[in-house]
Amino acid sequence: MVTIQEQIVDPTACCTLDISGAEQERMVAMFKALGNPTRFEIMKYLVTHPACITGDIVEFLPIAQATVSQHLKVLREAGWITGVTEGPATCYGLHKENIAWFKDKVGEIF
Amino acid sequence: MVTIQEQIVDPTACCTLDISGAEQERMVAMFKALGNPTRFEIMKYLVTHPACITGDIVEFLPIAQATVSQHLKVLREAGWITGVTEGPATCYGLHKENIAWFKDKVGEIF
DNA sequence: TATTCGTATCGTAAAAATATGATAAAGGAA
DNA sequence: TTCCTTTATCATATTTTTACGATACGAATA
Fold first, then answer.
1. A103 located within any domain
2. Pairing of strands B52-53, B81-86
3. Model confidence at B94, in pLDDT bands (50, 70, 90)?
4. What pLDDT score was predicted for residue B3?
5. Do the domain assignments include residue B16?
6. How does pLDDT run across B14-50, given as a tens digit for each residue?
């Protein structure tokens, strides 16, 4: 019996991209956020500097504080990083669960 | 002996993001290209419709032909797809080698 | 309370992305 | 050759992104 759920899949295809709806939107948003050189650098910085504050990243990058803050917001909203208020500062770190989800999904659909 | 190549790596870190230079640029470009809902849909379409032409994708998507052509150009320049002239048309397909590279790299660095 | 520190947000300007209709160019058919 | 088909590119408008200085706000300090 053929149901609406079935799909004809090319056995020679190099990937399935079997994702849709909210998961696809989440995926696209994560792709978009990391598709920027500065934000990729911020992610790399967080690997070697876990639990750092905004000022550390501002020192590291050659751009204005306001711009760094904006990039951090984009990364946080896409789920790549976490930001926790610690007194007057904000402590940033990699969002392990979401990163693991992304890695797993890429492994699944590509 | 400590050399310039050595890096202090946090063993609890969830990823290494150990990539740089041209490979990092290539990675960011691929992220950027797929960080768009329409282009992601085009990629999904190509999975189920290997070796299709521009007109097929134009029929499938609710956007103008010129816009589809631009999106195809972005995907091609980022390395996600191939485009081969076949008579008056252009035959598009997934770029298997580059997709495999992307998948492998994501598995390595995340 | 007044001040300083750290950072997010506001207002704005410039650059890039997205979208469209019109056009051009190239291949095949009449 | 002339016409039709197909698609890329052009010119352009709109939206979004990126960047900055200025400002506001909360937390800690004097």
1. yes
2. unpaired
3. very high
4. 43
5. no
6. 999 999 999 999 999 999 999 999 999 999 999 999 9
Return the SS3 of B78.
helix
Containing structural domain, residue A102:
21-109
pLDDT of residue B8: 58
pLDDT for res A12: 75
Give contacts of A 20-59 with B, CB under 8 A. Answer: 24-25, 27-37, 40, 43-44, 47-48, 50
Q: Is the dihedral of CA A42, A45, A49, A55 positive or negative?
A: negative
Q: Which CATH number fits the domain that encloses residue A78?
A: 1.10.10.10
Nearest nucleotide (C1') to alpha carbon of B70: D8
Residue A81: beta bridge partners?
A: A94
Contacts of B30 in chain A (CB under 8 A): 35
The answer to whether residue A6 sits within a structural domain is: no
Owner of token pair 């711009």: A67
